[in-house]
Amino acid sequence: MKKINQYITRLSFMLAVCATMALVACNDNIADEDLYTYKPEMLSDFLRNNADFSDFAAIVEKAGKMELLSTYGTYTCFAPTNEAIRNYLSANGLSGIDALSPEDCDTIASTLLVDKMYSMADLSDLQGFIEDQNMLGRPLACEPVKVLIGEDSVTTYRINRSAMVIYELANDSVDNGIVHPISSVAESSNQTLPTIMREDPSISLFNLCLEMTKLDQQMQRIKDASYDPRDWEYMEGLYRSHEHNNYCWVPQSRNYGYTAFVVPDSILSAEYGINNWEDMYDYACTIYPEGAGQDYYGKSAEALQDPRNPLYKLIAYHILNRKALYSKLYTNCTIYRNEINPTEWYATMLPLSTMKVEYVYGTNKFRGNSQVKTLYLNRMYDPNRPNLTNRGAIVSQTIGEGLTQEAVNGVYYYIDRLVDYGENTHNTVFNTRMRIDFYDIWPELMTNDIRTSRTGEADATTSKDAAARNYIFPQGYFENVETNEDGDFIYQGCRNYYWSYEGDEFNLRSDNNVYDITFNLPSVPTGQYQIRLGFCLIPTRGIGQFYVDGLPQGIPLDMRGNGGNFTGVWEARVGWKSNYTSLSDEAKEQTRKELANQGWYYGPKSVRNISTGGGSVKDDNLLSASNSSPFCNNNGTVRRLIYTGPLDGGVQHTMRIRSTYAVGGAELMFDYLEIVPKSVYGIEGEGKGEDDL
After folding, report:
1. What whole-number distance in Å separates Cα of residue 357 and Cα of residue 345?
2. What is the pTM of this model?
3. Rounded (5°) CA angle 623-142-177
4. Residue 465: per-residue pLDDT
5. CATH 2.60.120.260 fits 229-254+433-681, yes or no
């Protein structure tokens, strides 16, 4: 993404000063009034000195934020004019700014301030929301709007569907940021997701079903009030990882979130003949016939609230247990889109279910007839397996005009088809290799905006100095995760130059040489599967024992690479062939089978890390064959078979990782899982094996 760099401004100033000094040196007779004197203007100065924004300046002062805006940084300020402030006060029955409490002022100011710079050009790159949260800890909705300036049609932006950026005054640069004046006060909703959804008349049937199943009552949580990051600040600091230090923060919040994918009433009627809740129930019965005749299967108020009820199942499956902005539902980091589409797998509010989210590009064989640059739910297309095709549902970035899309604890989107977790979905969508980044598994990460979009940023190696943050998690931060007191559970933030799928990874380490973690595995339909772990072999790693459902799986996994001799060791030990992409198709097939027979797999051919130096490529969209290296050519980015056997779709399965060697801070890395059905991995004899993507 293009970012205005404050150092350009400073460089221009320095050049101007140098030029002025040169002129002075040549001519000592220049009048004093003609000499240029640089007077730096911070955002605080801009607000205080500009009469058009004096009311907003007073609000910022009362909020106690003016001093912050006088420091160096990269702020974006959506500054309401005095007229906008007066209209806001009048609409709320307030006599003046004196009637606002300091808390009110803090809410107004924090809503309109973002701790990153976004020019008008940057806003054009967004997909519905500003990626960095505002100082209230929430994303700002941002939608383009065409306006007339004289006879010219130009694009400006509406913030939070309530405040228009004044085009003629936008992009006003100050020394520590950029100012976009707005014509009204952009408010931040304190309403929960079900509340704002009720204001949308086009989704009345879905809202009714939410109420009848009481799922709306399960979507009211906002924040864990007992979590205070100050209780855990002692955990923050520099942690050694391989050959470099990374600074780790503790999360600043523990919020809860939800994402609803909703089919509008008009589509339900036209496509499915669904016009009332009973029609919806009848449709649900065709998808979820199991349990018919049982008390919980009926239409009574009590039955509809049972998670086994067909209507409950249908509605619950349309809701994720995380707050997911459109641009955060998938990532381009390390994904070579010429070969695959970015794909994620998320749990839903239907117990023991998973949803596939895929962003389709037009540059690879998996496009089929689908729309390009479009987000799909439960889509399946593979030209080599055309009998498994499933069209899926298209996710729209925006909703109806004038409606609020983002609530304090969630967001909702329109989709053009119903999705489900029924038998047809099991047999098509989930009849594939599921590559699941560990970031997908724990919803707290997305809800609390843990993953950065600034994947080209350098590591924070000395102090809190990087935009791409790393985190260390206190015990109990994640639901359904148990860790021991002696172990450190660390998230390495996304870097497109890491040897990590989607740029991020998790590490277990311990100063006391002991770590232990147990977590829930993603749910899949009942069947025979392999579970594989994707990770990076490095000499400073440790050794860990893996368990599935409490049972040990093989011998402990040694994650220590053997330095420069590693390739030679693997060639002798397991038949590894270096520079995989240069092999013939026959040699690739043979070496894949030989490795698989021993429980090892090359890294994915479709995943690449930037190879031109840390942080040199800032935009993940610029990843190409010329500036990156495929994981399959790296003898350290590998996949290891952990488990082969049955998985029951009606049971919550678990994985445990326990250290057997963690001396000197040796860390165990877990990057991603692959859960692979036997129909994919179980090719025998002369059949064509699993692809290398």
Report:
1. 6
2. 0.83
3. 75
4. 60
5. yes
